[in-house]
Specification:
Bound molecules: adenosine-5'-tetraphosphate
Shape: globular
Distance between the termini: 34 Å
Low-confidence stretches: none
Mean pLDDT: 96
Strand order of the largest sheet: 1-2-3
Length: 332
């Protein structure tokens, strides 16, 4: 079976709808057809300042949400990144093969560091894409299910895989991005020109999955639209309405064209009300399942320990091969 690898950072207490629709939903589907590795990316989370107790809590909550969303530990390998030391070890090798100039071209770093200011920006935030490359290559992943914001990092991953293979002999699978067009970028509800993001300026624009479902439904109902009245998908002219249609379509599985017909002659309020209902219907059982995992920490630990064991088996094989190829002598 082809392999997939992906991760999510435990940088907040709850995933948002963008994380779910852009990435996690695909993870759930791909565990049926692929040999799937999914991780809570805690090494990535510390690229920005974290409170230790909060990070610990958020890592558990992230794992519970992934299970609540439908990951099945018998069908996929779910683990915490820091439990597999090979990530950091291969990350170092990758960073030594990457040009400073090419790393400097990563737009996500430019955006995030501009927001933080250079004194507060860590070197880890700069090298984060290189650790991400190691994450992917360690598992010989064929595909990486992510949102559109990760495309540039995946292109760099492909370049590095080819570079290593050319210099040292075929070692790595060259991975393909797996980006589902319809949900590749979910936008902020209050500012539909920018992506829904944990670090958004207004919490009103983000739908978090673990917060009170009524409050989230209210946010969906007060999403920014436009002064027109027609419910039609048009990203350019109607970004707010298009975003709501994308979300509604993804949650219900009904194609956008069918929704346009369904809402013909109706007002924006109808779309928002139906969307809020569909969201509540989906999120309520998700929250219940997530809570059940959080109430059984022993079971959560067992799942994560089993996942780390499986992940290490694969990762250590790749790392040993890499160490040999670059010329390190084996430890006796
Ligand atoms: N708005 C989005 N639409 C579609 N996909 C999205 N992803 C994130 N935002 C959207 C995808 O979610 C996965 C996990 O991402 P992450 O753990 O790296 O989280 P993030 O990108 O840090 O999340 P935010 O909210 O975007 O945080 P900040 O504040 O850092 O900007 C990835 O596959 C990502 O593509």
């Amino acid at each position: 079976r082809p392999r997939v690898l992906s991760g999510i950072q435990p940088t907040s207490g709850s995933f948002h709808l963008g994380n779910y629709l852009g990435a996690v939903r695909q993870w759930v589907a791909l565990q049926e057809s692929h040999d799937a590795y999914y991780m809570v990316a805690d090494l990535h989370a510390i690229t920005v300042e974290q409170d230790p107790a909060t990070l610990r809590e958020n890592s558990r909550v992230s794992a519970a949400q992934l299970l609540g969303a439908g990951l099945d530990p018998d069908r996929c390998t779910l683990f915490v990144q820091s439990h597999v030391p090979e990530h950091a070890q291969l990350g170092w090798v990758v960073s030594c093969l990457t040009g400073f100039g090419e790393a400097s071209r990563m737009t996500q770093f430019k955006d995030k560091s501009a927001k933080q200011g250079s004194e507060r920006t860590s070197v880890g935030l700069f090298t984060y894409p290189l650790l991400q490359i190691a994450d992917i290559l360690l598992y010989q992943a064929n595909a990486v299910p992510v949102g559109e914001d990760q495309r540039q990092h995946l292109e760099l991953t492909r370049d590095l895989a080819v570079r290593f293979n050319t210099r040292f002999g075929k070692t790595f699978t060259v991975p393909e991005p797996y980006i589902v067009k319809e949900t590749a970028k979910i936008f902020d509800l209050q500012d539909p020109e920018i992506k829904m993001s944990k670090s958004a300026s207004s919490p009103k624009g983000i739908v978090t999955l673990l917060d009170d479902a009524k409050a989230s439904a209210k946010k969906l109902k007060s999403a920014v639209t436009d002064t027109d009245t027609v419910i039609r998908y048009d990203e350019e002219k109607k970004p707010g309405v298009s975003n709501l249609l994308s979300i509604y379509s993804a949650i219900t599985g009904r194609p956008v064209s069918e929704l346009e017909q369904h809402f013909e002659g109706k007002m924006y309020g109808a779309l928002k009300t139906e969307l809020a209902e569909a969201f509540t219907e989906w999120v309520t059982p998700f929250q219940q399942r997530t809570r059940a995992y959080l109430e059984d920490p022993a079971e959560l630990d067992r799942v994560l320990a089993k996942g780390a064991g499986k992940a290490r088996e694969t990762a250590s094989g790749t790392l040993a091969d890499v160490y040999d190829r670059v010329g390190f002598i084996p430890a006796k």
